[in-house]
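Problem 12. The chain below contains 57 residues. Write out its predicted structure in token notation.
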Amino acid sequence: MAADEKSQAKTEQAKGKVKEAAGRTVGNERLTAEGRAEKAKGDARQAKEKTKDVFKH
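Solution.
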């Protein structure tokens, strides 16, 4: 389960980076903001998983 959550976090981060870069390239502020939000969501998920790992051991 934890590995699945970690991979999902990495996927969200990557998708967010791509969306943000695409939004900047075409000058679409909405797409850039969506990318930043998705990247932040992935960062938060990853931080949660790291915290769980610290307390697990």
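Discussion. Residues 25 and 32 are 9 Å apart (CA to CA). Students who got a different answer should revisit the alignment rule from Section 12.3.
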